[in-house]
Amino acid sequence: MILSNTLTTDAFTPTPSRVHSNTAAHHRHGQLLELNAAANKEFVNDGPFFFMKPFLSVLGFQEGRTTNFGPTIAVKESDIPSEEEQQRRREQAESDMTNIGMDERDRRKYAGEIAAKVSIGYAIVSSLFLDDGTVHGSLARFAIILPLFFSVGFTKSSEKGL
Amino acid sequence: MWDVDGTGIRKIDDDNLARAFMAKVNDMNLETGRDALLLAAGFAALPCDLTGKLAGAAAVVGTLYFLQGKIPKED
């Protein structure tokens, strides 16, 4: 910001000996203003999953609740740690770039393992009983994508803490 | 939002941090969909004969594993 202000003052001081440099400085100033605006603009979820935002509160993603295997439950007063511990955990999460706690990561790891077992079970059942060698059989095997999605998703979430 | 300090879900006050998290989570979600799709498509593309034999073998091995120690031995 200080740098930006210095450049602004410098760029718009109309001294005759600096007409050429003023054009370049003006351009640079415009770029800096755009960068500042981008850095300071309010957070908006404009990513590929922005459409999920209206459903989050319906699914219980709101303050006072905590994630449990993905969905949410109410926070127990007795489970809330001290202010110092809360601060320590926030700093740790910020440095690790994680947005769920260790308990939830462990739960998601467990859920990922269950979903992996379901996937293996479905792979065996679909191969032995559902696949008749036609396209329908292949589609029946492709349906493994559902348990696989949960297995991969929960496992990645657990590993990355997101 | 994040849920890291034991008080439940909270809005992330720092917008830059929130933006960084959003990018990371979106990447992870896309990776998850891609990986699941590739694995499922790969499995569906395998020949029926091969998957049938492999599934049969897996079923036998799995049954033996789960029955391990549960069949009484004759003296």
Describe it.
The complex is a heterodimer of chains A (162) and B (75). Chain A is mainly alpha-helical. Helix content of chain A is 65%, strand content 4%. Chain A is built from seven helices and two strands. Chain A has helices at 2-11, 19-40, 53-58, 83-96, 102-130, 135-142, 145-160; strands at 65-67, 72-74. In chain A, helix 1 (2-11) runs antiparallel to helix 2 (19-40) and helix 5 (102-130) packs antiparallel against helix 7. The relative contact order of chain A is 0.08. Chain B is mainly α. Chain B has one domain (15-67). Chain B is built from two helices and no strands. Chain B has helices at residues 15-45, 48-67. Chain B is elongated, with a radius of gyration of 24 Å. The model of chain B has no long low-confidence stretch (mean pLDDT 91). Chains A and B meet through strand 1, helix 4, helix 5, helix 6 and helix 7 of A and helix 1 and helix 2 of B.
